[in-house]
Amino acid sequence: MKEKKIVPRKLAGFWELDPEKEYVFEYVLDKIKDVFYKHAFLPLDTPVMELSDVLLAKSGGDLDKEIYRFEKGSTDACLRYDFTVPLARYVAMKEGELTFPFKRFQIGKVYRGERPQKGRYREFYQCDADIIGFEKLSLVADAECISLYDDIFSNLGLKCNVEISSRKILFGLIQDLKKEDKFNSIASALDKFEKIGDIVTNELLKEIDLSEKERSVLLEYIKICGNFSTIKSKLEKLSKNEMFLQGICELEQIDKHLRNMNVENYFYNMAIIRGHNYYTSCVFEVFLEGMRNLGAMGGGGRYDNLAEYFTEKKLPGVGMSIGISRLFDVLVQNNLIAVDVDKKSKASIIPLGDNLDHCLNLCSKLRADSVACEVLFEDKSFKSKLKDANRSNVPFVIIVGDDEVSTKKYTVKNMQTGEQNQLTYEEILNVLR
Amino acid sequence: MKEKKIVPRKLAGFWELDPEKEYVFEYVLDKIKDVFYKHAFLPLDTPVMELSDVLLAKSGGDLDKEIYRFEKGSTDACLRYDFTVPLARYVAMKEGELTFPFKRFQIGKVYRGERPQKGRYREFYQCDADIIGFEKLSLVADAECISLYDDIFSNLGLKCNVEISSRKILFGLIQDLKKEDKFNSIASALDKFEKIGDIVTNELLKEIDLSEKERSVLLEYIKICGNFSTIKSKLEKLSKNEMFLQGICELEQIDKHLRNMNVENYFYNMAIIRGHNYYTSCVFEVFLEGMRNLGAMGGGGRYDNLAEYFTEKKLPGVGMSIGISRLFDVLVQNNLIAVDVDKKSKASIIPLGDNLDHCLNLCSKLRADSVACEVLFEDKSFKSKLKDANRSNVPFVIIVGDDEVSTKKYTVKNMQTGEQNQLTYEEILNVLR
Question: How far apart, in whole angstroms, are the C-alpha atoms of residue B120 and residue A299?
């Protein structure tokens, strides 16, 4: 009697690619890592789990319903939902040993127990880079984080635009209106502006009890957009508040640094607000050029105090992030990745008759000469092996029969053109490399 | 009043390296991946969690105390404790789409809720490669998996020895003694032989109710070790059992394939048993040359049926694994990794006086010319910047003062030798690349 089988299935909303696609994903990760290294960032890889009181420190121990939490023995732990809290925990623990500014990147999986839907995952890849200062941090750090986008997207053969704004400018403006106590509600209403437009944003602001004049100032503000000198002259007409002017002055510094760094693909857009309230000054989002409608592929900004829940030390920082799982989906769907297949198998070797031994030897020689390849060793027909080679997209097939073994000239078939040649080992090396 | 801080701490036994070490670890992973690619394996990256009934299918749903399990809403899930079950789940799900033999590797974190102790982690990295056949799988696959070790360890600048055995030979021998019903207990006693020696193993076998003659056969068997012809002649004196002889015959085939593949660092050792009972034939373990006392750095073997809990289809396979977290600890403790620092920062640029802008520009040019570097932009003294550069082990420091800017010759200090030179941009490129 057959036993009952368990239906093999994956958790819904959890990230898993087929190996051919995973190869491409790994290629994208490597391209991104290369840029971080070039900018002198080093990697950090924190555990997937953190103690619940540590992970939930920010929210005063409140358990958000989106977080995976569990207990085992006396351990109460959660799966990480971002890399910011783990970074804060790490820096607070190691603060005495680290050299500041501390620059690290982290690429890995994060977890959100949301209902899975198209484009939304419960397990997905995130990519962060942060620069943390000790007590203070130069505005060069903000420019450095923004400049990473330009380099990363060009390393992937893509063009991006970074749109920059400042929560300090917005705060100054709201201070001017004497509505500081409503800053979060106003910021959250303005954050929706690009999606919902003038009329609905106006309604939202009305609900926060803002006068018509106040609303019109904010709606004028949110539309300010352009290069630095354009936005500067428009902003200066709106307020003389000290924090407002300080925010403009900071953006001016960052703008100068970006120009010195030869960064070009950016402009200023006051409609960029960023949801997280821990940002305190410059904020930014990145979009694929010509595909702004797909939404931001990442964002970041400046925060005053990374680890305030863990240490008395003031650790200001600036960070940038990319939602790589989402970016990857967009790149694949729009056919935007030109992957070099350098690491993939260059040849499938097919033995005819009794020549498996010779093939294994040939394969081992090619690998020693740095050529990725394999022998199709299974006891299948020549035709079905050719079909397997075709399905695996291998560029060449090497056929080894008795003639080939005696003449030491192998039949090499180009799988794209169908062309077939008799080649010596050295000639094969030249073709495959 | 200051609020109470939460003590920042990491879960005990969870893997986390400081960035300088993480850089080395990433280097090791890349070296290993390169070999998998060269052998025409592609990557698979399954979720960290699996549904509990899927993950525990093997054990009939029993929850091992070592497994992290939790419920969220209607989801009952566990953290993976190895890559074999996720592979079985994946292959069973995709079986109609895959080309067999299916070759994949997976490198990632696995979870075991054990009490943490030196050298034992609760979260650690594992690395697996498997070849899965459809209904049948050639013995070339076993040789291919064994050959991976040789390539991987040499790619890391190390030498290894693979020790090979066969559970089929052992099973045949035990069949001969008519003790098949006690196979698992006998295998488990013999598995301890290398740690506990003759006398204690003999005691363990006595407890399983084996006669003196039976025990002496097994103790003779377990000591058989050497190249193939040596072990063959010794084994043939022990039994004429059919399965026993078939096991020898399989090792003979594998041996021939290994020689054809030019693999050298291996021999046969009947004391290699492997704990997992799903292995059905050839099994092997890998040791660092000259450091056998440190224990196996990995192992693997042949199994008859990868996914029997999920599908009626027979999917025989062979797999190899490396405990990379453990291997990494051993390599670091014994100073055995020679890492090239290719990706790390080559230069820290220190502005003197008012030359930050010039430095940012120089840095951007160097990066565009593929040199990893950074500006030490913080407002610190020259002396403390030099100290920071020294701590970060950067090979060169570029000092940019007014003279340097006007002459376009920069002061370049070699941090190892202390030597200082005035170099043009082109000369710097030559030195740094």
Answer: 38
Q: How confident is the model at residue A113 (pLDDT cuts 50, 70, 90)?
A: confident
Which class for A13: exposed (0-12), middle (13-18), buried (19 or more C-beta within 10 A)? middle
What is the distance between the alpha carbons of residues A190 and A214, in angstroms, rounded to a whole number?
Answer: 13
CB pairs under 8 A between A and B: 267
Enter the pTM of the model: 0.95
What pLDDT was estimated at residue B1?
41
Chain B contact present for A7, CB below 8 A: yes
- Does the CB of B4 have a partner CB in chain A at under 8 Å? no
> Taking CB atoms and an 8 Å cutoff, what residues of chain B touch A433?
none
B38/A370 touch (CB, cutoff 8 Å), yes or no: yes
| Distance (Å) from the alpha carbon of B345 to chain A's nearest alpha carbon | 5
Which residue ranges in chain B fall short of pLDDT 50?
Answer: 1
Q: Do B39 and A367 touch (CB under 8 A)?
A: yes
Question: Strands B317-322, B298-303: parallel, antiparallel or unpaired by DSSP?
Answer: antiparallel
Over residues A30-62, the pLDDT tens digits come to 999 999 999 999 999 999 999 999 998 877 666
Residue among A43, A143, A343 minimizing CB distance to B37: A343
* ipTM value: 0.94
Gap between the Cα atoms of B6 and A70, Å rounded:
20
Query: Touching check for A10 and chain B: CB below 8 Å?
Result: yes
In this complex, the residue of A72, A257, A371 whose CB is nearest that of residue B113 is A72
Pull the structure tokens for residue B65: 């105390």
Q: A16 and B90: CB-CB below 8 Å?
A: yes
Cα angle: A104, vertex A108, A109; to 5 degrees: 140
Which of the four pLDDT bands, split at 50, 70 and 90, describes residue A147?
very high
Cα A10 from Cα B47, distance rounded (Å): 8
pLDDT band at A375 (very low <50, low <70, confident <90, very high): very high
Q: Tell me, letter by letter, the H, E, C secondary structure of chain A.
A: CCCCCCCCCCCCCECCCCHHHHHHHHHHHHHHHHHHHHCCCEECCCCCEEEHHHHCCCCCCCCCCCCCEEEECCEEEEECCCCHHHHHHHHHHHCCCCCCCEEEEEEEEEECCCCCECCECCEEEEEEEEEECECECCCHHHHHHHHHHHHHHHHCCCCEEEEEEEHHHHHHHHHHCCCHHHHHHHHHHHHCHHHHHHHHHHHHHHHCCCCHHHHHHHHHHHCCEECHHHHHHHHHCCCCCHHHHHHHHHHHHHHHHHHHCCCCCEEEECCCCCCCCCEEEEEEEEEECCCHHHCCCEEEEEECCCCCCCCCCCCCEEEEEECHHHHHHHHHHCCCCCCCCCCCCCEEEEECCCCHHHHHHHHHHHHHCCCCEEECCCCCCHHHHHHHHHHCCCCEEEEECHHHHHHCCEEEEECCCCCEEEECHHHHHHHHC
Percent of chain A past pLDDT 70, that is, above it, reads 97
The answer to whether A37 contacts B260, with C-beta atoms less than 8 Å apart, is no
- Nearest residue on chain B to A73, judged by CA atoms? B113
Q: pLDDT (tens digit, 9 = 90+) per residue, B341-366?
A: 789 999 999 999 999 999 999 999 99
Parallel, antiparallel or unpaired: strands A317-322 and A279-288: unpaired
Contact A150/B at CB under 8 A: no
* Residues 29-48 of chain A whose Cβ lies under 8 A from any Cβ of chain B: 33-34, 37-40, 42-48
Structural domains of chain A ordered from first start: 19-333 (3.30.930.10), 347-432 (3.40.50.800)
Give the number of other Cβ atoms within 10 Å of residue B416's Cβ.
9
